[in-house]
Amino acid sequence: MEQNNQLISGVLHQTKSAPNYTLRRYFPSPQLSSLVEQYWLVNWDLPEDSQHVQRNLPDPNCHLTFLPNKCEFLGPVSKVYDYTMHGQNGIIGVKFKLGALACVLPNPIEHYMDTVISMPSFLHCDLAALSKTLSQTDNDKARVHALEQALEPLCGYVKVHHVQQLSALVERIKSNDDIYTVEDLALQSGVSKRTLQRQFKQYIGLSPKYLIRKYRLHTALTLLERHPNDIHHLVNKLDYADQAHLIKDFKNILGMTPGAYIDDI
After folding, report:
1. Which Gene3D superfamilies does this one have (predicted)?
2. CB 79 within 8 A of CB 34
3. Of the residues 27, 54, 251, 263, which has the fewest C-beta atoms closer than 10 A?
């Protein structure tokens, strides 16, 4: 079981938030690598009279989460969302690969946008039994093993080629600072703009333009953690035309200006 030690992205005010919880992430076994991007487990133990509200960036991946006596399927998220932690508790989560569930979901992926479904019946596994098993385990290795055993039948439904292609396209967006438009992505990937738009709609439910802006904002938040008082550095580093364009991206995706975000760091 290999731990994922890559930098965490998509968590707002990461430095300030980190002391409130313990997060561990693990890569799937090779047998489930076309289905699962990672397993994530988070625990917190907060004073009785306090709580922590964790804000997160939109997430195009589908998730399956387990809390005591609760199992939920989370579709792609198109807007900033909050989760309130209080007392002593934890979540066990599965982050599915982009496009991996396209042949499993009863409806097109956009039907599940910003949607939560309790105990979904379409994942071809006994989620009630899995929830019980997870509640009786006391270590991460056993929990990940239980998840893999339960989810393995889903691998037979995955169109591996489509998943690999989508993963490569999204990784290209994440890792290339010079991709600002869908035209840039088409040029670098060798995939036509129309094909990109069709594939992202069919398998992710979000447009390539939206995801380019989202991952650009990931970089912006990381830079703000390091340079919280230098908006001009951010504008220049991310090659925005001007500060107004940066502010527009923040407002559209985070619902706030860079200044408001900095005030809360």
Report:
1. Homeodomain-like
2. no
3. 263
Matching residue, tokens 């969302």: 81
- Cα dihedral across residues 196, 199, 202, 203: positive or negative: negative
- pLDDT number for residue 142: 95
Class of domain 14-157: mainly beta
Angstrom distances, CA of residue 150 to CA of 82, 118, 122: 29, 17, 13
Q: Give per-residue pLDDT as tens, 14-64.
A: 778 889 999 999 999 999 999 999 999 999 999 988 999 888 888 899 999
State the residue for tokens 């989760």: 83
CA-nearest of 36, 5, 10 to 23 is 5
Q: What is the pLDDT of residue 224?
A: 75
Residue the block writes with tokens 């019946």: 121
Count helices and strands (H / E) in the chain.
10, 8
**What are 89-141's pLDDT values in tens digits?**
999 999 999 999 988 999 999 999 999 999 998 998 899 999 999 999 989 99
CATH architecture, range 160-263: Orthogonal Bundle (1.10)
More confident residue, 240 or 101: 101
Distance (Å, whole) CA 98 – CA 126: 23
> Alpha carbon of 216 to those of 29, 139, 142, 211: distances in Å?
30, 36, 36, 8
pTM of the predicted model as reported, rounded to 2 decimal places:
0.88
Asked, colleague to colleague, whether 14-157 and 160-263 share their fold, the answer is no
| Beta-bridge mates of residue 38 | 95
Q: What are the beta bridge partners of residue 25?
A: 40
Q: Are 203 and 109 in contact (CB under 8 A)?
A: yes
Q: What is the pLDDT of residue 237?
A: 67
Dist. CA 7–CA 122, nearest whole Å: 32
Structure tokens at 17: 């938030």
